[in-house]
Design goal:
Number of strands: 0
Main location: membrane
Organism: Phascolarctobacterium succinatutens YIT 12067
Membrane topology: Multi-pass membrane protein
Structural class: mainly alpha
Subcellular location: Cell inner membrane
Shape: globular
Largest sheet: none
Protein name: TRAP transporter, DctM subunit
Distance between the termini: 47 Å
Order of helices and strands: HHHHHHHHHHHHHHHHHHHHH
Number of helices: 21
Amino acid sequence: MAYLPVIIVFVLYFSSIPIAYALFGATISYFTFLDATSPAHLVFQRIITSTQSFPLLAIPFFIMAGSIMNYAGISDKLMKFTDVLMGHMTGGLAQVNVLLSLLMGGVSGSANADAAMQSKMLVPEMEKRGYGRAFSAAVTAASSASTPVIPPGINLIIYALIASVSVTKMFMAGYVPGILMAVSMMIVVAIVSKKRGYKPSREKAATFGEIMTQLKESIWALLFPFGIIAGLRMGMFTPSEAGAVAVVYCILVGVFIYKELKWEYAWPIMKETIYGTSSVVLIIVAASFFGYYLNWERIPQHITSAMLDFTRNPYMMLMLVNILLLILGMFLEGGAALIILAPLLVPVVTKLGVDPVHFGIICIVNIMIGGLTPPFGSMMFTVCAITETPLGEFFKEVWPFIVALLVALLIVTYVPGLVMFLPNL
């Protein structure tokens, strides 16, 4: 009976109940019917106290910063810069697509936001240049998988709160894996484009002068992610304060430098921020409430003991966890999988000496790959809906990218020094 709420969560989720309400419903049913020893006011007090977390302030600030940057023309400046750098390569516009997602990690922090934006911005242009629609959609969805791994990805903040690790360290740990994912996809793009004869978007490589001219125009957009990391490393601000600094920076750049941010955009920006923040924070609060039930019944400890009885080899354990996350990622939306599984798996891997920051990156890369696979891949549905690409055609084109990302996942899993290099400096 102690495990009944876990079953209820999955039943409600697969009945199309949003994950936050599924978690609330399962936990409330437990404390109402199965364990009446906890006074009701203490249970609901737990819900309220889970919102009283200073790192949570990073979420609305970074969501607002991403929204402001889209209205301020930052995305357009980044795309022009990536085209100057990569446009001359085989499959130039597809390469631009991958690199833009990497740079957008510091702007949107959301795979679905990046996938939606590039579906509207780049897929029609790729079709005009002779790329197949299904291939264009596959590149867009796959490249967006690297976006949440690059700071300030919202999943990095969520995992840090769930696992009680430093948000700053999670930010630092995301860079190398994100770049590795992008490089693996660029190799696939080059191979497929050469085989199919996809032409570059530029006839020849940009001259040094052209690169410098575009860099001068795009420098304020490029400074955003680097400025955040420099400020965090030098102790100028915390991750939450970095979000506030980012909002002010974006407003100043949008109003006084690019001059594309208008007063009439204030209400759309506020709406996007409120909607984005409320949905994310509601899930976090529900997860914290569900975690209270898990700890009350000592379920993480039971699962830890069971898994450790199976194997105490950390390499084998990580392989089992990867397989588990990949399978569940096909059925659970990425954020839901992270919120449900992280509290259960973190105690297991830490017992075997795996750094929880390293494990967080493994989890996030895993669930991003799950976002590309049926039946519930969120990026897959987002891109296919916007571009009107049949799912069957999409999957035929996306599987080479999934293979490349799996190779990147294995490197991230078994070469922890790559992930922990920046956090340990």
